[in-house]
Automatic annotation (TrEMBL):
<feature type="domain" description="Thiamine pyrophosphate enzyme central">
    <location>
        <begin position="220"/>
        <end position="348"/>
    </location>
</feature>
<dbReference type="GO" id="GO:0030976">
    <property type="term" value="F:thiamine pyrophosphate binding"/>
</dbReference>
<dbReference type="InterPro" id="IPR029061">
    <property type="entry name" value="THDP-binding"/>
</dbReference>
<dbReference type="GO" id="GO:0000287">
    <property type="term" value="F:magnesium ion binding"/>
</dbReference>
<dbReference type="InterPro" id="IPR012001">
    <property type="entry name" value="Thiamin_PyroP_enz_TPP-bd_dom"/>
</dbReference>
<dbReference type="Pfam" id="PF02775">
    <property type="entry name" value="TPP_enzyme_C"/>
</dbReference>
<feature type="domain" description="Thiamine pyrophosphate enzyme TPP-binding">
    <location>
        <begin position="411"/>
        <end position="550"/>
    </location>
</feature>
<dbReference type="GO" id="GO:0050660">
    <property type="term" value="F:flavin adenine dinucleotide binding"/>
</dbReference>
<dbReference type="GO" id="GO:0009099">
    <property type="term" value="P:L-valine biosynthetic process"/>
</dbReference>
<protein>
    <submittedName>
        <fullName>Acetolactate synthase</fullName>
    </submittedName>
</protein>
<dbReference type="InterPro" id="IPR012000">
    <property type="entry name" value="Thiamin_PyroP_enz_cen_dom"/>
</dbReference>
<dbReference type="GO" id="GO:0005948">
    <property type="term" value="C:acetolactate synthase complex"/>
</dbReference>
<dbReference type="InterPro" id="IPR011766">
    <property type="entry name" value="TPP_enzyme_TPP-bd"/>
</dbReference>
<dbReference type="GO" id="GO:0009097">
    <property type="term" value="P:isoleucine biosynthetic process"/>
</dbReference>
<dbReference type="Pfam" id="PF00205">
    <property type="entry name" value="TPP_enzyme_M"/>
</dbReference>
<dbReference type="GO" id="GO:0003984">
    <property type="term" value="F:acetolactate synthase activity"/>
</dbReference>
<dbReference type="Pfam" id="PF02776">
    <property type="entry name" value="TPP_enzyme_N"/>
</dbReference>
Length: 564
């Protein structure tokens, strides 16, 4: 009996001819590049190192576009952003030991945010594997062990014949829901040695679809269409699976209010009558969600930030759609549906009947009014609060479809709740793992992904110090990025946290450079801005091709989640 896949695997005459006469001078590094090109890769990020030279040499002889940054962690952030925006598994090329380990924090962020980064690292020569026997530079006892608990999967090639299959397997893993970073490791001598293997001409690494179980979606649809007060929490899984359109259709069919998590910003229209926006760090919103008799959670694990720091306790039934099996029912009992958000929402659309509720928009309006009144009582309302005024200025200056990237800084904490992302997959922050230094290098990756589109990065002065070296990258590639640095003299959010908890801050005050002069030394236009001139200065910077820096000296405050 002949199966279809048997026919697919049969080589063509051209493939047979190419296999019998491979071009001379190819190495294991060429096998890596050929496999990536066969899978559709056009762009890679990374930094060369001693054990990875053969790989970078092969890239240099290919048509693969290579974006080299200055710090491996920043290269990983850039690859993360490229993967988020394009939906492609993005190669991150690293050397052994310190170079590889430096990328760990960024890979942790990619894992938390389900970004498909394909990290490919060199290793010491095969004879030195096992640790400590040969004393190789950069040697680790078990390099892959350092990544195994961070990335989605680990893939190791020890011979040249394993390279194409291992990379294809890793690619498939990275793009199967939930997306995530994967780790590939290849020894230096395997990359360097000439190969007699045929050229890799075809890539076959189709991600698996994660469809919901029909009996579960049937029950979920029944609960939702018969609910009295259904509410939807939309997380980052909606963005990753490109399911915002289906979410809107379902919410309107059920007359169900929708709140987006900080990772799900843009998944639902901000000004829609059913939009609860993103005020998850607010007790009024928490109470509203607890009052739902059926709560549909799509693409979120209801972690610390999405549960208002674990103060949220659902009062009704919970339906949770989640592609990451480890997050399914990890925080609250639920009807757990292990599935890709897009496929599960489609199943609900095909099953759930119409539910009319003319009072739902009014309930939404009332809870948003309560939140606005709380902020006003703290002197942080939209009219009198500097923080929301800055967000209004940024929103007015930033083109609707321009991506923005936010570091862990006070203005970003406000943006999680109060910023209108306008469109799906346009607002990104480091709230997954919470490390510093994300915004600027991630914005550079976005510039590569969407050339000709202005991109905004927002950092505090503390977080900016992690990324200053990438001013050189922005200039070298003339990337269309505007970097807004909010300078409050230190780690502003930690200053607030420590003052609240201990009465005084420690180790939060920082000596900073003159950011404007520093950017100018790289040949990058830079200026100091003010809250009053921010909107105009941002518009001008975003409209000017190439990189630019704006520094905003100001001190911001965080809101309290309840009325004071």
């Amino acid at each position: 009996m002949t199966h279809d896949h048997d026919l697919v695997l049969r080589p063509t005459e051209a493939q047979r001819a190419a296999a019998l006469a491979p071009p001379p001078g190819r190495t294991g590094g060429d096998l890596v590049v050929e496999t990536l090109r066969g899978l559709g890769t056009t762009t890679a990020f990374g930094i060369p190192g001693q054990h990875a030279l053969a790989l970078f040499d092969a890239v240099g002889r290919s048509d693969l576009r290579l974006i080299t940054l200055r710090v491996e962690n920043n290269a990983a952030f850039a690859a993360d952003a490229y993967g988020r925006l394009t939906g492609e598994a993005t190669p991150l090329l690293l050397s052994t030991g310190p170079g590889a380990l430096t990328a760990l924090p960024a890979l942790a962020e990619a894992a938390a945010a389900s970004a498909p980064v394909l990290a490919i690292s060199s290793q010491v020569p095969v004879a030195g594997l096992g640790g400590g026997r040969r004393g190789h530079l950069h040697e680790l006892r078990d390099q892959s062990a350092s990544f195994r608990e961070v990335v989605k999967s680990v893939h190791i090639a020890r011979t040249q014949s394993q390279i194409p299959s291992v990379i294809a397997e890793a690619w498939e893993s990275a793009l199967t829901a939930p997306h995530g970073p994967v780790w590939v490791e290849i020894p230096e001598d395997v990359l360097r040695a000439e190969t007699v293997l045929p050229q890799v001409t075809v890539g076959d690494a189709t991600p698996h679809e994660l469809a919901p179980r029909p009996e579960l979606t049937a029950l979920a649809a029944h609960w939702l269409e018969t609910a009295a007060r259904p509410v939807i929490i939309a997380g980052g899984g909606v963005i990753r699976s490109d399911a915002a359109g289906k979410l809107k259709q379902l919410a309107e069919r059920l007359s169900a209010p929708v709140v987006t998590t900080f990772g799900g910003k843009g998944a639902f229209p901000w000004t829609h009558p059913l939009s609860l926006q993103s005020w998850l760090e607010d007790r009024h919103m928490t109470d509203f969600l607890e009052d739902a008799d059926v709560l549909l959670v799509v693409g979120s694990g209801l972690g610390e930030l999405s549960s208002n720091y674990h103060t949220f306790f659902p009062g009704g039934r919970v339906i949770q759609i989640e592609a990451d099996l480890g997050k399914l029912e990890s925080n609250h009992p639920a009807l757990g549906i292990h599935a890709d958000a897009r496929l599960a929402l489609q199943a609900l659309l095909e099953t759930a009947g119409e539910r009319e509720d003319p009072y739902a928009p009014e309930r939404v309006r009332l809870v948003l009014a309560e939140i606005a009144a709380r902020l006003a009582s703290q002197g942080l309302g939209q009219e009198q609060g500097l923080e929301q005024q800055l967000l209004t200025s940024i929103r007015s200056a930033l083109p609707p479809r321009s991506p923005s990237f936010w570091d862990m800084t006070i203005l970003s904490y406000w943006a999680w709740s109060a910023f209108d992302a306008r469109h799906p997959n346009t607002m990104h922050s480091a709230q997954g793992a919470g490390g510093l230094g994300y915004a600027f290098p991630a914005a550079l990756g976005a510039c590569v992904a969407e050339p000709g589109t202005p991109v905004l990065a927002v950092s505090g002065d503390g977080g900016a110090m992690y990324s200053l070296a990438e001013l050189a990258t922005a200039k070298q590639h003339e990337l269309d990025v505007t970097w807004l640095i909010v300078d409050d003299g230190g780690y502003g959010i930690l200053r607030e946290y420590m003052t609240d908890a201990y009465g005084r801050p420690t180790a939060t005050e920082l000596t900073r450079p003159d950011f404007v002069a520093l950017a100018a030394s790289f040949g990058i236009p830079a200026a100091t801005t003010t809250p009053e001139s921010l909107a105009d200065d941002l518009k001008r910077s975003l409209a000017t091709p190439g990189p630019s820096v704006l520094v905003l000296p100001t001190t911001l405050r965080m809101f309290a989640p309840t009325h004071l």
